[in-house]
Amino acid sequence: MIDPELKVSLKTSDIDILHEVATSLHAAPTLDGMLNNVLARIKKVFGVEGASIALHDSDQHCFFFIRTIEQQNSRNHDRPAPGKWKFPDNYGVAGWVFQHRKSVRIDDVSRDERFTNTLDIQKNLDTRSMLCVPLRTRKKFLGVLYAINSRDGMFTEKSQLLLEILSGTIAIAIENARLYGELKVHAETLESENIRLKAELQKRFNKQGIIASSQAMQKVFALLDKVIVTTTTVLIQGETGTGKELIARAIHYNGPLKERPFIAENCAALSESLLESELFGHVKGAYTGAISNKKGLFEQARGGTVFLDEIADMPLSMQSKLLRVIQEGCVRPVGGSSAHQISFRLIAATNRNLHDEVEKGNFRKDLFYRIHAFPILLPPLRERKEDIPLLAAFFLRKYTKKFAWPEVRLAPDFIDLLTHYDWPGNIRELEHEIERALTLAGRGNNLNAVFLSERIRGTAPERDPSFDTQTTLPDAVSRLERMMVRDALEQTQGNRSQAARILGLTRQGLLNKIARYGLAEQ
Description:
Elements: H1 12-23, H2 31-45, E1 48-57, E2 62-69, E3 86-88, H3 92-100, E4 104-106, E5 130-136, E6 141-150, H4 157-201, H5 215-227, E7 234-237, H6 244-253, E8 262-266, H7 272-280, E9 281-282, E10 294-295, H8 297-301, E11 305-309, H9 316-328, E12 330-331, E13 340-341, E14 345-350, H10 354-360, H11 365-371, E15 374-377, H12 388-403, H13 412-420, H14 426-441, H15 454-457, H16 473-491, H17 496-503, H18 507-516
Helix pairs in contact: 1-2, 1-4, 4-12, 12-14, 16-17, 17-18
């Protein structure tokens, strides 16, 4: 990479310059920050008025400037962003460097035909002299590095040599940063793909749209496998939004009554009189507005399944009538004089503890034992957090399809926050959050943490300040060891034999660590 025609010897001070600039490459975690640091350092140690980097795009046969450090007083406010400055790779000084794969030193740009004024992004500096060196690795030409206007008047051969030496290190750093960026995107893509594949694997667990693979839900699926093949009365208990109706539908549509109707009613949604009419039906003239006969839900079921959601909210008087229907297998419409024989399977659900409601006198004990034949308890979402990524991916596909938008990804930080939130509204709340986030992100945009509600973003775990991004692994291990040894000694009130047993160490091993961390006097 170094021009073989240069015959210059380096001094210790020159090595210090190289070291100062090279160390700036590792002072920032991002490519943008790294280039800011290194160009600012070049400007300082080389005594130049400006420095910039233009990368080469081999597909489009052009250069584009990605970073420029100019004089603080340059009038640069109305100029476009550096990423928009592009020019063909056969133009100007950069074009010459690209063609010849050699650096160039120009003492007076006004007398050099390679200098193209229209491409000079440093024109506010009144460019007089420049160094332009290639940025390349063994395999690839990456771009060029400019140094503009030496404050000493002219650039020297030594300056050129030092910049050429640095160019190799900078080129490798840029290449590594690019590869890291590609690997990061690839890793995120793999993670998203992994979630998608896991969701597809749930088909063997997916009964009527139930997405789950957690241990808690495996127990529920095991119960479903037992009860699905029967017509036993089922009581599903779980918090609001846990999918009780989905479970009820899974039982019906995978069981022996799947060819019969599935009729659902929310007992908390209607007044007592309307609920009675809905369940049992009414005859013409039974009350004002009853202009014709109406069959109730039990008759409409015709040998199928009746699902009564939030049954704990049913008034006590209605509970006694429901009990009679279950016991006698017949129903009398409101205002009717005769009862009709009916056949149905009952599945009830509630978000309350029915046993407690019976103890409080809010629910009939005899009805409780009638419907408690086969109880299923659904875990809340906070107890099955491993299902959250699968559910999120499912709802994402659901709403991108609904909006007729292209498929997008869930970013790792988005998923991480979802799994740290407790979801008091359970699956229903998660679904609404995904729909909201997708709407905020807009068509074709991946979902990241910025699109989540504030209440969810506020659940991000705090980073332990003793283990920041600058902490090395050996330092972190030492800190953790010291903390564990100290805590064990406090727990055993200084009994070192007991502390050693707690830590899984020999007594001598503990004594060595006590001495190492200076804990003998504590």
